[in-house]
Design a protein that fits this description.
six-stranded mixed β-sheet; four-stranded antiparallel β-sheet; 12 strands
Length: about 300
């Protein structure tokens, strides 16, 4: 288990980057020379304040405070990659060494225009970010893909809006900081109890999946490959993808995934080193499952993640 542990520096915790996190970060970092991040995730919620929320609340200040509360509930929002790119680091906020308001100032902002305008300007950042856009009444959540998948970001937005629905919100500095380390996220391999050591069978299953990289579909957030014919129509591919999704995730699938991420990362590194200009050729058709959370306070809106009414 690659569990979090306190380093020699008090209040600073670390764990090794998981194999899947390393693979996704490898792809994300390809855009760094252009000051961009490949595979970064953006999700929005349109806010319609009602009642006392609409009448007397400074929404920018309220969402800033709710964002700090969300970090307390989900501290991995503030975890960052160490300079060696092999470990993650989380620092407990303290009044003297690492003030909470400094992190909030770096990660929360108010912008003009719309979420589409803001997304076009986003640049790589060590932490997750939240942007409030008053003109379009939107909240934009932005994070590196190694930190969360698309469904995870929607769940985090849901948690944020649940916090924001509470009036008044306590000063986040009064929260029992240092207790949040119990909620630091493990790697997906540890969360799924994937064996640390690969077996010959798992290595072979992984190798077969890696060999299907060309003309393939990525299945679930774990990223598995299935070969499809490059000459097939989209409807034919869709039928094959649906059949794969219906099979579900098996124990063999999970147990092979650590080794699969290692082999896939090696393949991508080799492709990057051999390609002209550092950009490998791509002929991959990606399919994924999208989910919108539905709950009493949510109203689905076409083209949006979700719409939230605040009391």
């Amino acid at each position: 288990m690659m569990t979090w542990h306190e380093t020699d520096q008090k209040g600073v915790f670390s764990r090794p980057i998981g194999e899947n996190e390393a693979f996704i970060k490898l792809l994300g970092d390809v855009g760094l020379p252009l000051n961009r991040e490949h595979w970064a995730i953006n999700s929005t919620a349109t806010i319609i304040p009602t009642g006392s929320m609409a009448a007397s609340v400074d929404l920018a200040s309220h969402f800033r405070r709710a964002w700090a509360h969300l970090r307390f509930q989900h501290p991995s929002l503030a975890a960052e990659s160490a300079p060696d790119n092999k470990n993650l680091i989380y620092t407990v906020p303290s009044e003297n060494e690492n003030p909470l308001d400094v992190w909030v100032a770096r990660t929360f902002s108010v912008a003009t225009g719309s979420s589409a305008d803001v997304i076009a300007t986003l640049q790589p950042t060590p932490y997750a970010q939240l942007v409030y856009i008053p003109r379009s009444s939107e909240l934009l959540f932005h994070t590196s893909h190694w930190r969360s998948d698309g469904i995870g970001v929607i769940l985090l937005l849901d948690a944020l809006l649940s916090i924001a629905s509470t009036l008044p919100l306590a000063d986040p500095a009064s929260l029992p900081w240092s207790s949040e380390i119990e909620r630091l996220a493990p790697s997906i391999e540890d969360a799924a109890a994937v064996p640390k050591d690969s077996t010959p069978a798992s290595k072979e299953r992984s190798a077969v999946a890696v060999r299907t990289f060309a003309h393939a579909a990525s299945l679930y957030t774990t990223g598995w490959m299935k070969r499809v014919d490059s000459s097939s129509s989209w409807s034919e591919r869709l039928g094959q993808y649906q059949n794969e999704y219906r099979k579900g995730i098996t124990r063999d699938f999970l147990d092979s995934h650590r080794e699969y991420a290692v082999q896939l990362g090696e393949m991508v590194r080799n492709a990057l080193s051999q390609s002209v200009g550092g950009v490998p050729p791509s002929d991959v058709d990606i399919s994924s499952i999208g989910v919108c959370i539905s709950r009493k306070s949510f109203i689905p809106v076409p083209g949006k993640s979700c719409r939230q009414k605040l009391p």
